[in-house]
Design goal:
About 30% of the residues lie in helices and about 25% in strands. The protein is an alpha/beta fold and about 550 residues long. The radius of gyration is 23 Å and the shape is globular. Bound molecules: adenosine-5'-diphosphate (ADP). Adenosine-5'-diphosphate binds near residues 185, 300, 301, 321 and 415. One of its GO terms (biological process) is fatty acid metabolic process. Belongs to the ATP-dependent AMP-binding enzyme family. Keywords: Fatty acid metabolism, Ligase, Lipid metabolism.
């Protein structure tokens, strides 16, 4: 067989040649809707590759982005990686100090940013001496009249100055292509460096029927940002299949998303649970329905069963639950049923679908106890989840310490899970969030999932707090749904019959809002701080 290295630019060459007139639609930070095709994406990416060379970006150099999901960000994905440099997507919602740390650690030589982030970048730039070029991803008309930013360039000027004569280089498929940092809620963020090979293999897997199940007939809108683990691979998957791509830019509020879903005929989407909860509330209020959306992949945090049910029954959209992390590119497991399970009752099938699911070929997993001994797949035993595979991290980028792999080559995810006899994995907690009560473990995720099933609950968090007798007990923290009342006793009674009695939260607190991480997950460290020294009462 021919020894053709797997390269990210190959995806673009394919889409340009075979899906030339398929559209890419973006909502831009400047407020416009922009439309073009894969042919335009190919041409402009080559112009951009020439511009990068003119900026002095060489093989292996890191190029940072602080940007929404737009066609320009997509061009950067292809021009940077395709030319042999490393596309480093930075989460703009991180604290400025973390962004400065990440840019320094990655040694980004250039940083491309959207108009939205101009004020942020003006603040950061002085602390990022290694950045030789700051590029505002807009046209001349949107450039600031005056700025303290050194070496500021205009994206559209850079592109316009170049011709599209550029041959994507061919190199070893193990060449680094992109870089993403973990959000570092407990420690400094850590970099995960993907390769062309890992990215392509991940894309093939993502397209499978038991995974995203997409084809050229789909219209995909990734709500998950391109700075959150490469939008879960969608920017690579779409050109591979030739799908129309709809990029929502900064418009991540429910009304803007709904408008794009309907206007562009979106059939498939993906994002964290918070986004879908927001959309559900909006659509209920306005009594709206989707006319084309058929399926969405939900992951990044546990998807509450109530959300599955509402999407299925009220909106006629199937949710596929997926699990993964920055270190796994991110797809690890996806929940789809096997034929043996189709004869189960609809309630049993539903219970199964709320698990995090089965591994995709390419990823293997196991659960182990504290001594590293494998635990049975009985759906009851839970332990540390370990994974391995060609798109799982081997060691962190530029880490001083050796990798986090076990001696026999497995990556410890930091998640605690069960695996049932049919191979369905269920996350019970992150190991840091597990509640250890009287020597037994309580799953905070399960308690949260049940709580959000109550009609008066908008959001719920459960944290373990020190307890004199049981070492730790669960505290339930609730955000009520607007216009709804519910008491602590009613909420505790709601758990009756659904869990072992000793799992019932020790107390309930009501708050106006809960803190979230930069990727929209509950920020439990912060919640634990808020309730530090909590008095349990009687
Ligand atoms: P961070 O949350 O640190 O930014 P990631 O985005 O890589 O990093 O998050 C990975 C973690 O998110 C996983 O280890 C797991 O704890 C959690 N996670 C991801 N998907 C799910 C899911 N479907 N259910 C429960 N937890 C999930």
């Amino acid at each position: 067989m021919m020894n053709e290295p797997l390269r990210i630019a190959g995806l673009l060459e394919h889409a340009e040649k075979w899906h030339a007139d398929t559209e890419i639609v973006s909502r831009l930070p400047e407020g416009l809707i922009h439309r073009y095709t894969y042919v335009d994406l190919g041409r402009r990416s080559r112009q951009l590759a020439n511009a990068l060379a003119r900026l002095g970006i060489a093989n292996g150099d890191r190029v940072g982005t602080l940007a929404w999901n737009t066609h320009r960000h997509l061009e950067l994905y292809y021009a940077v990686s395709g030319s042999g440099a490393v596309c480093h997507t930075i989460n703009p919602r991180l604290f400025p100090e973390q962004i400065v740390y990440i840019i320094g650690h990655a040694q980004d030589r250039a940083v491309f940013f959207d108009l939205t982030f101009l004020p942020l970048v003006e603040k950061l730039a002085a602390h990022c001496p290694g950045v030789e070029a700051w590029v505002l991803m807009s046209d001349r008309a949107h450039m600031p009249e005056s700025t303290a930013l050194p070496n500021l360039h205009c994206y559209e000027d850079l592109v316009a100055a170049e011709n599209a004569d550029y041959q994507w280089p061919v190199f070893d498929e193990n060449t680094a292509s992109s870089l993403c940092y973990t959000s570092g809620t407990t420690a400094e963020p850590k970099g995960v460096l993907y390769s062309h090979r890992s990215t392509l293999l991940h894309s093939f897997a993502a397209a499978l029927p038991d995974c995203f199940n997409c084809s050229s007939q789909d219209v995909i809108l990734p709500v998950v940002p391109m700075f959150h683990v490469n939008a879960w691979g969608i920017p690579y998957l779409a050109p591979m299949l030739g799908c129309k791509l709809v990029l929502p830019g900064p418009g991540l509020d429910a009304a803007s998303l709904y408008e794009l879903f309907e206007q562009e005929g979106v059939t498939f989407s993906a994002g964290v649970p918070t986004i879908w909860l927001g959309l559900l509330t909006f659509m209920r209020e306005k009594q709206l329905q989707f006319s084309t959306l058929r399926q969405t992949v939900v992951g990044g945090a546990a998807c509450p069963p109530a959300l599955f049910r509402a999407f299925d029954k009220e909106l006629n959209v199937q949710i596929r639950h997926a699990w993964g992390m920055t270190e796994t590119s991110p797809l690890g497991t996806v929940c789809t049923l096997k034929p043996q399970q189709l004869s189960l009752s609809s309630e049993e099938q539903f219970a199964l679908k709320t698990k995090q699911g089965r591994v995709i070929f390419g990823v293997d997993m196991k659960i182990v106890d504290g001594e590293g001994r494998a635990l049975p797949h009985d759906g009851v035993a839970f332990g540390d989840l370990l994974v391995r595979g060609p798109w799982v991290v081997a060691e962190y980028f530029g880490a001083d310490a050796p990798g986090d792999l076990t001696a026999d080559g497995w990556f410890g995810t930091g998640d605690v899970a069960t695996i049932d006899p049919a191979g369905f994995m269920q996350i019970t907690d992150r190991s840091k969030d597990v509640i250890k009560s009287g020597g037994e473990w309580i799953s905070s995720i399960e308690l949260e999932n049940l709580a959000v099933g109550h009609p008066a609950v908008a959001e719920a968090a459960v944290i373990g707090l020190p307890h004199p007798k049981w070492s730790e007990r669960p505290l339930l923290v609730i955000v009520r749904r607007a216009g709804h009342e519910v008491s602590a006793d009613e909420l505790l009674a709601f758990y009756e019959g659904k869990i072992a009695k000793w799992w019932t939260p020790e107390a309930v607190e009501f708050v106006d809002e809960l803190p979230h991480t930069a990727t929209g997950k509950l920020l439990k460290t912060k919640i634990r701080q808020t309730f530090a020294g909590y008095a349990w009462g009687d």
